[in-house]
Amino acid sequence: MSRLLRREFLKLTVASVLGFAGQQKPDQGGGKTMGENRPNILFIITHDTGRHLGCYGRGAPSPNLDKLAEEGVKFTQAFCTAPQCSPSRASVLTGLMPHRHGLIGLAHRGFRLRNDVLLLPKVLSQAGYSTHLFGFQHETTWDRVSDLGYQHVHRPDGLSCLKVTPLLLDFLSKEPPQPFFVSVGFTETHRPFPKLEQIPPQVKVPPFLPDEPDVRRDIAELNEAVRRVDESVGQIVEALKKHRLWDNTLLIFTTDHGIAFPGAKATLFDPGIEIALIMHGPDEFSGGKVIDAMVSNADLMPTLCEIAGVEPPTDIDGKSLLPLVRGEVEKLHERIFVELTYHAAYDPMRGVRTERFKYIRSFADRPFWLPPNVDNGLTKDWYKRNRPEVFKAPRPKEML
Fold it and tell me: Cα separation of 41 and 185, whole Å?
């Protein structure tokens, strides 16, 4: 890269960081209904899955999700705001970057949303939606889950697909009040993964990881977790069809951040910030569209507000995806901003990604991979034995 090009790109990225860093309050005037005939919204989000799905050319086959993508809308360049659970998920509910909504670390470690942020479940509840949480959430601790604004919280004895899906299927079978907003959280793809006795020979290891036996086993067990999620998605689709809800339900499947492997989760590299985003529903959310423009999961809050006929807060970072879905624009963002502050340890980083470049700035002296922020597992153990320098060598302050 020429010195001039690098200098101009750095000017652009620094301006972006400063622009996103303002601590302005979100407008609290949302809630005005704009239309009728609003669809049900069934929103599925999984842990630590990235784009590790068949329809993205990764992982094990995921036939049910692949079919949703083939018949609905698939976003190929969707990114999270932060490569960790709580901050990213809170951006979905608020449309804000983590440094603005306040949840800059994990909820179970004591981090909290700001009291004045407007949350999607509360907005939709006020607009006449019946709002439900099934299974996992990580935007707050369970003793404060009412703060999220769901009218009904369905928490089974366990948060896996095997526990959550039957509860959801029972709900769908009983003529639920409409329109509804249902958020469904599964935990299978979070470590520890389901254990396998035998490893299939066709396991594909992502190119950023070494193709070694321990890594192959680790990936195979992640694939098994994805298979279980995909099976549950198929059951949910069948239930929606059986109970005549399919034609008026927008089904969304997304993931909170990249897979829980070294060089992915808790880093600002693409494997850490990439997410799956598939939407299937009536009208513009059908037909097998593929959208290659960059989008952020902070865009989901204003998108769902618009779909529900509700004005979102005006001072948020996300933008509605509907102009992209309708083909009215070719792109929403010139750049995507991403950040990390605290996961299992303090590791402040900020990044800006364009279609061509990414700039990452580290604000503390840390090794290339900070050991506490790399989830334990077979792959981490392999690196400890074979490439320990990645946990010791200093990380550059700037990467471009």
Answer: 14
Is 45 in contact with 92 (CB distance < 8 Å)? yes
Domain that holds residue 274: 40-337+351-358
- The DSSP secondary-structure symbol of 291 reads E
**Measured distance CA(189)–CA(203) in Å, rounded:** 16
CATH code for position 205: 3.40.720.10
pTM of the full predicted structure?
A: 0.92
Question: pLDDT of 48-63, one tens digit each?
Answer: 999 999 999 987 789 9
- Say how many domains are in the chain: 1
The band of 7, judged by pLDDT with boundaries at 50, 70 and 90, is low
Amino acid at 215: V
Contacts of residue 376, defined as CB under 8 A and 6 or more positions apart, other chains included, come to: 191
Compute the chain's Rg from CA coordinates.
20
Q: Give the distance from CA 77 to its chain's centroid.
A: 12
> Is residue 195 included in any domain, yes or no?
yes
| Burial class, 67, CB count within 10 angstroms (exposed 0-12 / middle 13-18 / buried 19+) | middle
Task: Look up residue 391 and give its two tokens.
Answer: 């946990």
Would you say 173 and 239 are in contact if contact means Cβ atoms under 8 Å apart? yes
